[in-house]
Amino acid sequence: MNTDSSIGIEIEDAADTRPILIIPYMWIGDFVRGHTVVRVLRQRWPNRPVDLLVTSLCAPLVDYMPGVRSGIVWDLPRGRLAVAKQAGLAAELRARGYGTALVLPRTWKAAIAPALAGIPERVGFFGEARFGLINRMRWGEKALPRFIDKNAALALPDGAKLPPEWPVPQLRVPAEEVARWRQANGLGTGPAVALGPGSVGESKRWTYYPEAARLLAERGFDVWVVGGPGEKALAQEIVATGGGRVRDLTGTDLRNGILAMAAASVAISNDSGLMHIAAAIGTPTMGIFGPTSPYLWAPLNDLAATVLTKSELSCQPCQRTVCTMNDHRCMRDIPATEVADIAQRVLHEATPR
Questions:
Q1: Is there a shared CATH topology between the 2-155 domain and the 175-349 domain?
Q2: Over the stretch 74-86, which tens digit does the pLDDT of each residue have?
Q3: Per the similarity annotation, which family is this (predicted)?
Q4: In this predicted structure, what is the pLDDT of residue 118?
């Protein structure tokens, strides 16, 4: 065996060409972080194709993930078993002849289709009594410190020591695609700041995006508000406060958000999927953290700045989706002027891409 010296992952049987399926977490940020698992598998087995199960929401991300052969788009409903859909997915998986499936979620439902498909090796952590569905059961998940450690450990041999560093997620967006997108949206070619004001969980949303947009626009920068349909009302508020240099680019297609983050000169985001997208692309990214821990939830990719309140709060980090203490001070005590100043510094220091 050879060893990839960068992270100490042994390269195994180069003659093995059996495809591998990853069933990842389907939240956008978690899906992006799942690309680390792809990279570990590709280093371990360079000639085994890697596919991802994906929802229609996350499907555009697969097009920009190096090392992924294809995404299998299959929307399983939340909250119910959906036997017919599970059987249909199993038939699709069986036809593709997978040798290994990595089931990252600990749920019983996530393991059904790989088992029905008869995939010979089904790897996952113990959870929800999945005996029989997972036939290469792993233990000790709770001892692993971070979400990425729990996921990427499944791509290593059972019992293997974790490497000192994991390979970072990558999203490669062609420059010509970015240029076409900017032209189609009438966005010109100048520097722009992309704002990601949304997140899953109200407590993770920074309070002062409208004021920050106004300050950045007054300093001569174009500002784009990026997000999904749930951020439309907030985007309109930001545009109304920020003025004519601020554009609402929210919409229903995640590809639009990916291209916006790729085109931006700097991204400012809550702890959200868009933060992980921007960082994986390589756009200088400012992550604003309040109730969540950057150690646990920041991207593996370097951030241009990690913005935290200077106030000392006993409740932080609480990891709650809704603030129940201190009137959301972990976010309210981060002023718009501070974020705008940091963004201006990041823009000045950024290397042109």
A1: yes
A2: 999 887 788 999 9
A3: Belongs to the glycosyltransferase 9 family.
A4: 98
pTM over 0.85: yes
d(CA 239, CA 198): 15
The C-alpha atoms of residue 286 and residue 267 are separated, in whole angstroms, by 6
| DSSP H stretches of helix in the chain | 28-33, 35-44, 59-62, 83-96, 112-116, 147-152, 175-184, 209-218, 232-242, 254-263, 273-281, 294-297, 329-332, 336-349
Q: Sheet harboring 20-23: ordered strands across?
A: 70-73, 50-54, 20-23, 100-103, 121-125, 136-138
Report DSSP state, residue 352.
Answer: P
For residue 271, the Cα-to-chain-centroid distance in whole angstroms is: 10
Angle, in degrees to the nearest 10, between helices 209-218 and 336-349? 50
Rounded to whole angstroms, the Cα distance separating 346 from 349 reads: 5
Alpha-carbon distance of 352 to 141, in angstroms, equals 41
Residue type, 18: R
If pLDDT is split at 50, 70 and 90, which confidence band does 5 have?
Answer: very low
Range 139-164 average pLDDT = 92
CA distances from 162 to 23, 151, 295 (A): 21, 11, 17
Residue for token pair 């992006």: 32
Instruction: Measure Cα distances from 65 to 31, 102, 175, 249 in Å.
Output: 11, 18, 15, 23
The architecture in CATH of the region 175-349 reads: 3-Layer(aba) Sandwich (3.40)
* Banded model confidence at residue 119, pLDDT cuts 50, 70, 90: very high
Q: Is the dihedral of CA 220, 252, 206, 36 positive or negative?
A: negative
Q: For 2-155, give the CATH class.
A: alpha beta
Q: Is the pLDDT of residue 327 over 90?
A: no
pLDDT tens column, 34-47: 999 999 999 999 99
Q: Can you give 22-89 as a three-state secondary structure string?
A: EECCCCHHHHHHCHHHHHHHHHHCCCCCEEEEECCCCHHHHCCCCCCCEEEECCCCCCCCCHHHHHHH
- Domains of the chain, by residue range, sit at 2-155, 175-349
